[in-house]
C-alpha cells in the first residue's frame, strides 16, 4: 500500500473535496525489481509501524500468470492524541486496497478506499507503478487522491489540521521504503529479475489493462527540483492541479499553456490557493492577449525618448545568478517623460522589461544548473525631489505598478534601496499600498556604507560606476527631457503645477527676481521637531545663485537681523534645477536664503516651490517604511531565504 495512505483518511476540508496529486517519482531500477521490493512490505514492515496487518478478501490470477489482482482489508493505527481517539471511539482504521499487477504491460495500479467512517469521510486514492516512458530500465511512480469530510462530530477543522500535518509528513515515505528494500535485495544478491514472457493477451483483457493504467501527462520530480526548486509535497500537488486546470482553460481559448515557472509564481502570489491562482492567472492571460505580451520581444520598438532619457535597464547578474535591474529613479524627469510618450508606450515598456527579465532568468537557469525565476532590483534614489511627486506622474506610476503586480507576480527576489533621501519616507507612503505585502517584505534599505553592502549582492566587477564601482551601464543616464519632445504624452499639460503633497495645486511654483548684489530670504515658522522642509528651485538662463538654510529660535525680521541667524546648511552656488530636504531638529524659525550678492552686474531669476510636511505625517511615513525594512546589515542583504 502507499505510505501516504496511512494518514490519508483525515486529509480533507469540511464539506469540500480536497485533492492531492504527486509529480512522477523515478526509481532508476527495472519494474520487476521494484515490484520485488514492493512485495517485501507485506504482511507488515518495521518501516511502517502504523500498518498493523491485512487480510486477503479476494484474489485472482490469470491462467498465463500475467494478471494478478488481490484485494486486502488493511488495519492501521490512528496517529492521533489519545483524547481524540477516545472522542471518536476508535483506535484503528480499516482500508480496502485493491492491487492490479499486469506483468505483460509492466504496471501496478493500487486503488484504496476507506471503510472506517465511510458515512462521514470519503477517501479515494490511486497509486501507479509503470515503466518509465523514456527509459525501459527505470520505473515511474505517481499517486493521486480525493477526500471529503461530510461531518465529523463537529470536529471537522481539528481533524483536517491533524490529517494534513500527518499526511504531508508521510507522503514521501513510500519512495524511501522502496529504496530500502531495493538495497536489501541487492544485499541478498538479487540485482535483476527477468520480465514476464507469455502469449499475447485477448482483446478484452488488453483493453481492460489499458483502462486501469491510463494517466494524464504529469511532471517528473527531478524536473521540478531542477527547474523549480525544492517544493513541499503539497506545493507539488497544487502545482500539478493548477497545471491541469490551466490546460483546460487554455485549451478552450486556444492559448498556450504557461510554463511551470509561471504557474509557480502565481501560486506563490496567492499563497498556494489553486482556486485564487487560477483566477489571477486567467485574468492575466486575457490581459496578455489584449496587449500582445507574447510577441513583445520580437515586435516592440522603444520610443526614442525612453531610449535616451529613461534611466534604467538590465545590468549583469548578482552573486546568486539572478538578473539585475537597475533604476536611477532620482535622475528620472517624471514630467518630461510623461509629456513625451503615451501611457500605452509606458505599459509596453513595462512588459518589455519583464519579458526580458524572464528570458534572462530562464537562460540563467540553464547556465547555472539551478532554478532562477526572479531578479534583483536596485533602485538609486539620489536626486529624489518634489519634481518626482508631480501628481499626474505619480498616478500613472501607481497604475503601472498595479499592472506589474497583477501580471508579473513574484518576479522580484528583492528590491534594494540605495541613497534614500529625507523625502523618501513621504514618497514611499504615497505608493506603498500599491505593493502587496509579499513585495513590501522584499525591500532592503542600505545605509551610508551602501557600497560595502552592495559588494555582498553584486560581484565587485559588476558594481555600476555611478555608485562608485568600475562597471559602466548600458542604459540612459536620465536628465531633463527637452520641451521640444513634449508631444502626445500620457500626462496633460493642464496639470503642470500639481504636486502630490502640496496643499495648493493651482500655483505650485513661484517666480522671483533677485537683483544684482541682493538676496532673497524666505522665513518658515516650524512648531514641532521632525517637521520636514522640502525645496525645489530652478535658476533660469543658465545662471547660478547661492543657496543656504539658516535658523533662529525666535521669530525676527530676517532682513534687519540677518547677523543673528545660525547657518545650518552652508551657502553654495547652484545652477539649473535643485532639490533638497531638511528634517528640522528644533522648533523655531528657519530661513531659506538665495544669495546673489557676489554678482554686481547680473540679476537672477528663479522659480521655486517649498513644502512643509508636518512632524505627524513624517513620523507616520517613516514608521510605515521602517515596518518594511529596518535592517542594513550585510547579513540581511545576502540572505535569500525570505525571498524564495
Automatic annotation (TrEMBL):
One Pfam family recorded for the sequence: PRELI
GO cellular component: cytoplasm
Protein name: SEC14-like protein
Domain CRAL-TRIO: 302-475
CDD domains membership: SEC14 (cd00170)
Domain PRELI/MSF1: 17-190
Gene3D superfamilies the UniProt entry points to: CRAL-TRIO lipid binding domain (3.40.525.10), GOLD domain (2.60.120.680)
InterPro entries: CRAL-TRIO_dom, CRAL-TRIO_dom_sf, CRAL/TRIO_N_dom, CRAL/TRIO_N_dom_sf, GOLD_dom, GOLD_dom_sf, PRELI/MSF1_dom, SEC14/CRAL-TRIO_domain
Residue ranges annotated for the GOLD domain, each copy included: 505-612
Organism domain of life: Eukaryota
